[in-house]
Amino acid sequence: SRLSQQVAVLEHTPDMVVIGGAIDLIDEDDRTVGETWYASTDADIRSVLAHGVSPFCHPATAIRRTAFDAVGGFRAACELAEDLDLWLRLARIGTLANLDVKVLRYRLHPASASFDRIRTQVASYFRALVLNDPSRSETEQAAALETSDVWALVLSWAPPGEAAATLARSASWYVDWAVAGGYDARVDALKVEAQKEVEAKV
Could you report the per-residue pLDDT of 2-37, keeping only the tens digit for each? Predict the structure, then answer.
């Protein structure tokens, strides 16, 4: 089983704190509609994290319990982006990996939190990045905890002059998951809304 494979790796690699794997994407009728492969080595996974992208499918991971407890588990402040926040904190204390095999069939459906609460998820995504950025002051991190304004969070993390592009990429990063599930019309509507918001803020 995938869990036995992951546990075996954790047992033989004491400094490893989380291990995931590739996934098949399936629709509501169990039809395979796509697949996702993730970076497998610690160095490559850290490179993905450095760009603000989650390098794991959360349900496909096995996490070392002692490491999970050591970093404080999930944080409510990063609702709907708790996994990215957790990976960033786990990366500080151990190594990360993904198996080069498919370990899960991940169901896509329009009622999921990722689709119905996209704005909250994107805001939490940037909040997690700010909270885990060692170059940010305590004042900046406190401000990130207090606001739910997506634009303010983007401005607090994105490189100078790249805020609009960063927000557009983030919105696409979440809603593009829906394309494989056949929800193109809804995705297009979300992208149009996100782009209008970006243009209004520039």
Answer: 899 999 999 999 999 999 999 998 887 888 888 899
Which residue type does 140 have?
E
Q: C-alpha 165: how far from its chain's center? A: 18
User: Which is nearest to 106 in space by CA: 34, 176, 170, 38?
Assistant: 34
* pLDDT value at 96 more than 50: yes
In the structure encoding, which two tokens stand for residue 113, read together? 């939190």
Model-level pTM? 0.77
The answer to whether residue 108 scores a pLDDT higher than 80 is no
Q: And the tokens for 36?
A: 């996702």
Positive/negative CA dihedral, 26, 30, 32, 37:
positive
Tokens for 30, please give them: 């169990």
E strand or H helix that includes residue 16: strand 16-26
Alpha helices, H only, the chain: 2-12, 42-50, 65-70, 82-90, 113-116, 118-131, 138-146, 150-157, 163-175, 177-180, 184-201
